[in-house]
Task: structure prediction
Amino acid sequence: MAGPSLPRRGPSPAGTNNWQGAFDWLDERVGVRTIWKTVFARAVPKTTWLYTLGSASAILALLQGITGMLLTLYYVPSPDHAYDSIQYIMNDLAFGWLIRGIHHWGATLLVITVFLHMLRTYYVGAYKYPREMTWLSGVVLLLSVMLMGFSGYLLPWNQKAYWATTVGTSIFGAVPIVGPLLMEIARGGPQVGAVTLARFYGLHIWWVPIIVLGTIGFHLYLVIKIGITSPPERSE
Ligand code: HEM
Result:
């Protein structure tokens, strides 16, 4: 059955180029102008550079996603090959050292940027009404970003990675009563081994990124819906 008939726009007026025509065609069907106005051209209060830390975190997260996807093309998540595949990426693959370097340092920079962004929002009281959910979704993001760092640390499968994960997961064991069970769940067995590597790889490339993506979407939806705070001013 045909849907409701909308009044169709006529051909583009003389003088407008084909790009304009194509854009109008798309806008009429998808509403790109409204999306652009709502997301990018929305009114914001006069802010400072500190207000760019959220966007910096988003761009760094995107960069981690792109470089991480490139690394999965050569990284092999098995105890027999993980270490060698990283050596191959670093020493033989064209620009492998660059992609891995960006991913490695980007992870540290992301944690620092997200933390500074959190301090900025805390400083201006942006966790208060009506932004409680923005703050809470931020808490999920902070924990997820840290979990990304923790799960990624094991993947090079070198001595540092192995023992850091042995120590890190043994912290779960210190929880009263359920500690040993939690530690075994984290390791996938009594010791760090092949299952731990598979488990951490799964967390690192699927579970946590999906949570991060969904939560960033929700976080930014709230930022757009509610609007951001303005920096505090001295009232005379
Ligand atoms: C991957 C992590 C994160 C990304 C990509 C992100 C992104 C953003 C962006 C783009 C904004 C608007 C611009 C700005 O204020 O900088 C924002 C605002 C906000 N974020 Fe985040 N954020 C992240 C983590 C966090 C964390 C860890 C918290 C706190 C626990 C948090 C709490 C907030 C709050 C309360 C606002 C509103 C700020 C205001 O109205 O002034 N965010 N976030």
Q: What stands out?
A: Residues 42 and 224 are 8 Å apart (CA to CA). The chain has nine helices and no strands.
